[in-house]
């Protein structure tokens, strides 16, 4: 597993050398853009929108558009001065309960590994202390020139850092169209049926039971095309009908998801 960030966690006056490793990976199948006639990849060039010339990397600078077609340039040196030395240190600011953080704030997960040496004991101590307290640490971290809010929690024999969105990056649900027109009261019988349906579908979360069905089908399609096997022609997917009677639809759903009773086998008499 490749290290993608190296620095330290500041826990009070204690500095713990650590390394970050990406905890998840993108399994999406990448499809290239090809020229239909030649079946060769399409190349994209960097051109100036004003003069139309191709621009090399050394002639590209970063800038901010403060008004239409008006930009101010910002150099890499100016950006590095803003970060100072904080890009290699994670200072735990507070500790909170995990249940207090809405999942909408979570962005990406990283494994926190010890950086060896004398930091192993401090790493182990922090991991156990966080685990025993049933709380998570809140900190700031700079990754690839961007500051993130982060949550640090115990996980097995190690720790996980999860980057979080800042509050002003999370949109209000009140911005969703028609959200204010949602009925405030529901018919009790319909609510009871909906609750029963939820109970029948309730189970323990076991990640291994869930698969990316679309990716598996796409992999199979690609392998068949490589082997020269033509894909099967499937009939159109029937469109769902509009729900006219909500109660009837709920009753049918409850009936369909109800566990089937096993028929008892009769013992043979001798």
TrEMBL record:
<keyword id="KW-0227">DNA damage</keyword>
<keyword id="KW-0234">DNA repair</keyword>
<dbReference type="InterPro" id="IPR016194">
    <property type="entry name" value="SPOC-like_C_dom_sf"/>
</dbReference>
<comment type="subunit">
    <text>Homodimer. Interacts with LigD.</text>
</comment>
<comment type="function">
    <text>With LigD forms a non-homologous end joining (NHEJ) DNA repair enzyme, which repairs dsDNA breaks with reduced fidelity. Binds linear dsDNA with 5'- and 3'- overhangs but not closed circular dsDNA nor ssDNA. Recruits and stimulates the ligase activity of LigD.</text>
</comment>
<protein>
    <recommendedName>
        <fullName>Non-homologous end joining protein Ku</fullName>
    </recommendedName>
</protein>
<dbReference type="InterPro" id="IPR009187">
    <property type="entry name" value="Prok_Ku"/>
</dbReference>
<dbReference type="Pfam" id="PF02735">
    <property type="entry name" value="Ku"/>
</dbReference>
<keyword id="KW-0238">DNA-binding</keyword>
<dbReference type="GO" id="GO:0003690">
    <property type="term" value="F:double-stranded DNA binding"/>
</dbReference>
<dbReference type="GO" id="GO:0006303">
    <property type="term" value="P:double-strand break repair via nonhomologous end joining"/>
</dbReference>
<dbReference type="InterPro" id="IPR006164">
    <property type="entry name" value="DNA_bd_Ku70/Ku80"/>
</dbReference>
<feature type="domain" description="Ku">
    <location>
        <begin position="52"/>
        <end position="181"/>
    </location>
</feature>
<keyword id="KW-0233">DNA recombination</keyword>
<comment type="similarity">
    <text>Belongs to the prokaryotic Ku family.</text>
</comment>
<dbReference type="GO" id="GO:0006310">
    <property type="term" value="P:DNA recombination"/>
</dbReference>
